[in-house]
Amino acid sequence: MRVGHSYIRGNVYNKTCTFSRDSALPIHKGALFQIQAMYNNISYSAEARFIPQGKIGTSVENFSCVIYNISFMNCAWKAGRNAPEDTQYFLFFQYSKEEDEQECPHYIRDALGRPIACSFQNVTDIKKEVYFLVNGSSNELEIQFYDEYITLYEIEILTPPLNITVNCSEDRAECIVRWKRPQPSHMEGNVDHCFEYQIDIRNKNANANPKESSNECPTVRGTSYTFQNYNVKKKYTLQIRAKGDACLVSQNWGEWSEPIEFGNPDDAVLTTTIVLLLIAFGTIPVALVIFFLCKRYCSLKKMFSPVPQPKNKFHELFQISDKNIQREWMDLPPTKYETEEITTVEELNNF
């Protein structure tokens, strides 16, 4: 069988030929079957061509799928350039001929209502090759189908490495970065040798040299990396991503980890100090302006009313006593005065 530039050959000894799943090829573009036989030392040959039904340009285009977050799969495509506006596409995938095909549970549609994407959940066995088939229907034209075989682990977007730590030494002017590998659902045991990692370390200083702030990203094997030429006066950001280096792991780079900062924290302290000083110096002029405005246009007595003092019980007592004494003095009866006659006796001398 010939499909495009690919060939599948096999020897059979009866009138039926079955191709195994491992050697199957998509046939949405058509296929050419050639048969050669030998009988009584005479060679015979024949061929048959498979031509898909439907109008050319109506099948989906740019079909692709990705697996992310271990068990989620998204497939997307474009409607055929000659597909009518009422075209409806239906996506199926099948693990093997012995298993039932599964249809897309959730479609995403374009402005015309045509399905252009699909989301699957709980995609577990990604070590196998899966057959994808997209059929179509329309009231105007017959829609061509599209099919493709995809090995699922090859389209997986790996999650970021886990438990990233950075330990720096000022004496040695270096930092040791350690992490743990991603956790693909289909891999168990010690498979650290199956991964390759890319390290991105950047100088975070705002006035850093562009050459220093965007270094080349080295690739390493293993789960540790030594960062040389560490400057204790600088602050850095670190990100790591992974891809398969062997085994049944995607050869495409996965997602970057969240940025991790390490290095000298003095910049943050200095920034905080500057902000506090600016606030302090900014508050003093504002307070002075408010004071002079209030002195000019407001009454300080209204703003700062006197605080009431507690009553002095002794003072009240003395006031009450004084009043009582005055009242008693006024109430005394008038004093009677007796008249006393005084007689002056003079001694007369005789001459």
UniProtKB/TrEMBL annotation:
GO terms for cellular component: external side of plasma membrane. It holds the Pfam family fn3. Keywords: Glycoprotein, Membrane, Receptor, Signal, Transmembrane, Transmembrane helix. It is found in: Membrane. The chain crosses the membrane at residues 274-294. One of its GO terms (molecular function) is cytokine receptor activity. It is a single-pass type I membrane protein. InterPro entries: FN3_dom, FN3_sf, Ig-like_fold, Short_hematopoietin_rcpt_2_CS, TypeI_recpt_CBD. Signal peptide: none annotated. Residues 160-267 form the Fibronectin type-III domain. Gene3D superfamilies: Immunoglobulins. This is Colony stimulating factor 2 receptor subunit alpha. The gene is CSF2RA.
